[in-house]
TrEMBL record:
Signal peptide: none annotated. SUPFAM superfamilies: FAD-linked reductases, C-terminal domain, FAD/NAD(P)-binding domain. Keywords: FAD, Flavoprotein, Oxidoreductase. PANTHER family: PYRANOSE 2-OXIDASE. It comes from the Bacteria. This is Paromamine 6'-oxidase/6'''-hydroxyneomycin C oxidase/2'-deamino-2'-hydroxyparomamine 6'-oxidase. InterPro entries: 4Fe4S_Fe-S-bd, FAD/NAD-bd_sf, GMC_OxRdtase_N, GMC_OxRtase_C, P2Ox-like.
Length: 498
C-alpha cells in the first residue's frame, strides 16, 4: 500500500528514492505510478494535506497564499486545489480528449509565441486509452454512458431544435445504478466526492503501489521552496519548508519531476536561482513563466418561467455539474478566426441554487502571449516566500471568441424561453483552474524551456510534466490531456535514465 503521511512523520532519511515528484495532482500521481511500474522508489512531495470527503473547495483553499494581480491586490488564484490529489479532488470530471486543432492551433491563431505542440494527437492516443480505462470514463471503451440530467435533456432538446448537435459528456464518474455508482448526493462542483463514485487519484488507486514493482511514498505538509543545483549542473537537492515545524529541510535528489501546476511550477523555477542558473532554472532566454494561459470563458444564466416548459428547471439539481454539451462551434466558420470552443450545462454547486434557472458554461483556449506571465514579487508571504504575481491582459481576439460563444449560449437559453439571461461577471487575469503554457515545450531552447518529453533543455535530471508544457491551452477541459501527456513523458524516461 502506498505510504501517505505528513512529512513530519517520515522517520527514515530521504536518500533511498530514485526520483522525487513535486505535486500529487493528476499529473504528479500518474508520473509517480509510471515510474513505480518501472520499479522505481518514488517520493511525491505535496504542500497540502488530504481533503475530507464532502469538503468544499473554498474553505479548503482559504489557508493558502493568493497571487498578486495586475490591479495590485492579492486576489489571484495560483492553485487548482492545494491538497493530496490536487485539483482532481474537487474537479467536475469532464474528460474530453483534445483534437489535433488544439495541438496545431497556429492554423487559426497567431501570437508572438510558438503555439503548436511538439507532438500530435496520434502520439497521445495510447495514453488517452490507458487513462480512460484507469478512470472508467463513461461512454468510452465499453463503460456505460452517464445519463443526461433533467436540465441536460432540456438543453439537448433546445440545441437539436436550433440545429446544434448535442452530446453527452464523457465523465470520470460511475453512473448511478452501476457498481459503486453515483448516488446523486449533491451538485458535484467544487466538492470532494464523498462516495468515490467520481474519480480522483485516490478513488481510482492511481497512487496505489501494492501491485507494482516499485514504491510510492506521498509526503505532504511540505512546500518545495527551491531546487538546489550542484557545480556539475545537476539538481542535487530540494529546499523545503515545513510549516508544521517551521523548519527548512533539505531533501537530496537523483532526479526531480515537477508537476506543481503551470503557475507553481514556473514560480519554483524562478525561485531556484543559483550561480548555475542566475535567472532561475531553464530561464536563460527569459521564457519561464511566459505564455501563461487560462481558458477564456464564462457562464450565462437563464431565468425560467414555471409555465414555459421549464418545469424541470424548478427542481433542485443533484448529480454531476454537467452532463450535456455541444462541440458545434469548436472549429466553426462563424467564429472569429474560425476557432470557437465548447458550450455545456453547468449547474451551480448547491442543489437549491439551481431552482428556477438553467446555466451554461462556454470555454475556449486562451491565446498565449509573452506579456502574460507568472513573475515573483519583491514582497514575501508569512513564510518568506516571494508572492507570485500575474502580469496579464486578455487579447482582442480572445474577447471576440468569448463573446461569440456567449452569444451562442444565450441563443440556446432564449430558445428555452428564459425570460431573463445574465452573463456572470468575468475576471480574466485572476486565474482559473485550467492552467497552461509557462514552461513551453519544443526542440529549440530559444523559444522553449523543455523538450517534447519534459526535460529542461541543457539539464539532465530536471523534468516538468504538468500543464505548463502545453503550448496552447486547448478548447476543452485539460485534465485528461494533462494526464495522458504526463504518462507519455514519464514512459519516455528510459530504464537507464533512472
Ligand atoms: C472546482 C474544479 C473543477 C474542475 N473541473 C475540471 C473538469 O471537469 N475537467 C477537467 O479536465 N479539469 C477540471 N479542473 C481542472 C483540474 O483540476 C486540473 O486540470 C488538474 O488538477 C491539473 O492537474 P496537475 O496535476 O497538473 O495540477 P494540480 O492538480 O494543481 O496539482 C498540483 C499539486 O502540486 C502541489 N504543489 C504546488 N506547488 C507546490 C510546491 N511548491 N511544493 C509542494 N507541492 C506543491 C499542489 O498543492 C497540488 O496538489 C477543475 C478544477 C477545479 C478546482
Amino acid at each position: 500500500m502506498t505510504d501517505i503521511r505528513h512529512i513530519a512523520a517520515h522517520v527514515c532519511n530521504y536518500t533511498n528514492f530514485d526520483a522525487v515528484v513535486i505535486g500529487s495532482g493528476p499529473s504528479g500521481s500518474i508520473v509517480a505510478r509510471t515510474l513505480a511500474e518501472k520499479g522505481c522508489h518514488v517520493a511525491v512531495l505535496e504542500y497540502g494535506g488530504p481533503a475530507c470527503p464532502g469538503a468544499m473547495l473554498g474553505p479548503h483553499q482559504a489557508a493558502y497564499s493568493k497571487a498578486l494581480t495586475s490591479n495590485g491586490h492579492a486576489d489571484g488564484n495560483p492553485w487548482t486545489a492545494c491538497c493530496v490529489g490536487g485539483g482532481m479532488g474537487f474537479y467536475n470530471a469532464i474528460t474530453f480528449r483534445y483534437r489535433q486543432a488544439d495541438l496545431s492551433a497556429s492554423q487559426y491563431l497567431t501570437t508572438d509565441m510558438a503555439i503548436d505542440w511538439p507532438i500530435t494527437v496520434e502520439e497521445l492516443e495510447p495514453y488517452y486509452l490507458e487513462i480512460e480505462h484507469l478512470l472508467e470514463i463513461s461512454g468510452a471503451n465499453g463503460f456505460p454512458s452517464y445519463p443526461a440530467s433533467p436540465r441536460g435533456l432540456m438543453l439537448s432538446n433546445a440545441m437539436q431544435e436550433l440545429g446544434i448537435r448535442s452530446k453527452t459528456i464523457p465523465l470520470a464518474i460511475r453512473p448511478p445504478g452501476t457498481n459503486k455508482g453515483c448516488i446523486n448526493c449533491s451538485a458535484c462542483d467544487e466538492l470532494a466526492c464523498p462516495t468515490d463514485a467520481r474519480a480522483s487519484v485516490l478513488a481510482r488507486n492511481i497512487l496505489d503501489d501494492s501491485a507494482l514493482p516499485g514504491t510510492i511514498s506521498v509526503l505532504y505538509g511540505c512546500f518545495v521552496n527551491r531546487i538546489q543545483m550542484q557545480n556539475d549542473g545537476r539538481a542535487g537537492a530540494l529546499e523545503c519548508y515545513v510549516p508544521l515545524s517551521s523548519e527548512l529541510i533539505r531533501i537530496p535528489i537523483e532526479r526531480v519531476i515537477v508537476c506543481a501546476n503551470a503557475i507553481q511550477t514556473a514560480a519554483l523555477m524562478l525561485r531556484s536561482k543559483s550561480d548555475h542558473a542566475p535567472k532561475g532554472i531553464g530561464n536563460e532566454s527569459g521564457l519561464v513563466g511566459r505564455g501563461l494561459s487560462f481558458k477564456i470563458g464564462g457562464y450565462s444564466v437563464g431565468y425560467m418561467e414555471r409555465a414555459d416548459g421549464g418545469s424541470d428547471a424548478f427542481a433542485p439539481h443533484w448529480g454531476p455539474h454537467s452532463t450535456v454539451y455541444t462541440d458545434e462551434f469548436y472549429e466553426h466558420n462563424g467564429a472569429p478566426c474560425k476557432f470557437g470552443g465548447l458550450i455545456y450545462e453547468a449547474n451551480f454547486p448547491l442543489p437549491n441554487e439551481n431552482v428556477g434557472v438553467v446555466r451554461l458554461h462556454y470555454i475556449a483556449g486562451e491565446e498565449p502571449w509573452s506579456h502574460n506571465r507568472v513573475a515573483l514579487d519583491e514582497a514575501a508571504d508569512q513564510y518568506g516566500t516571494p508572492y507570485i504575481r500575474f502580469e496579464y491582459r486578455s487579447s482582442e481576439n480572445d474577447r471576440a471568441r468569448r463573446n461569440f460563444l456567449a452569444d451562442r449560449a444565450d441563443d440556446i437559453l432564449r430558445h428555452l424561453r428564459a425570460f431573463r439571461i445574465e452573463r456572470e461577471p468575468y475576471f480574466p487575469g485572476k486565474g482559473s483552474s485550467h492552467l497552461h503554457g509557462t514552461m513551453r515545450a519544443g526542440s529549440d531552447p530559444r523559444n522553449s524551456v523543455v523538450d517534447s518529453c519534459g526535460r529542461v533543455h541543457g539539464l539532465t535530471n530536471i523534468h516538468v510534466m504538468d500543464g505548463s508544457v502545453m503550448n496552447f491551452a486547448g478548447n476543452s477541459n485539460p485534465t485528461h490531456t494533462i494526464m495522458a501527456n504526463a504518462r507519455r513523458m514519464a514512459m519516455s524516461l528510459g530504464e537507464g535514465a533512472i
